[in-house]
Specification:
The protein has 1 helix and 8 strands. The protein has about 120 residues and is mainly beta. The protein is elongated and about 70 Å long.
C-alpha cells in the first residue's frame, strides 16, 4: 500500500491598489515565498515485510528576502523515514530531515543556526 500527498500553495503578495498609487504593484511580503511545493509518499512493503513502511518527502520553495534585503535563494529539502509496526499498538519511526544538509537561511546567523539544528535533527518516536 502506498500513499502520496502533494501540496502546492501560491501566495499573491503584491499591493493591488493604494491611495496615490505609491506602492501599487509592489511586493509587500518579500519574506514569504511566492511558490511552494511539498510532496510526501509512503510505501508499505508487501508480504512478510508488511510491518515495514518507507517514506520519502520533499519541500521546495522559491526565493525570499528579508526587510533588510538579505536574499535567500530558492531551495529543495529532502526528508526520509522508516517505520516498523511491532503490533497494533506499537510503531517505531525513524525520521531523517534535510538529507542533503542544506543551509536554509543565509546572512542571519542566529536564525540560520536554529533552523539547521531543527531540520537536521533525527528522532525516534
Amino acid at each position: 500500500m502506498s500513499t502520496c500527498l502533494p501540496v502546492t500553495p501560491y501566495n499573491k503578495r503584491k499591493y493591488t491598489a493604494s491611495v496615490g498609487s505609491a506602492v501599487a504593484g509592489k511586493d509587500f511580503a518579500k519574506q514569504m515565498p511566492k511558490h511552494m511545493l511539498r510532496a510526501y509518499g509512503n510505501y508499505r512493503l508487501p508480504g512478510e515485510a508488511s510491518a515495514w513502511t518507507l517514506g520519502l518527502g520533499m519541500r521546495m520553495q522559491s526565493a525570499t528576502e528579508s526587510g533588510w534585503d538579505i536574499h535567500n535563494g530558492g531551495r529543495t529539502v529532502w526528508n526520509a523515514s522508516v517505520q516498523y509496526a511491532l503490533d497494533a499498538h506499537w510503531q517505531f519511526n525513524l525520521s531523517l530531515n534535510n538529507l542533503t544538509d542544506k543551509a536554509l537561511l543565509h546572512g542571519q546567523r542566529f536564525r540560520a543556526v536554529m533552523a539547521m539544528a531543527a531540520t537536521t535533527a533525527s528522532r525516534v518516536t
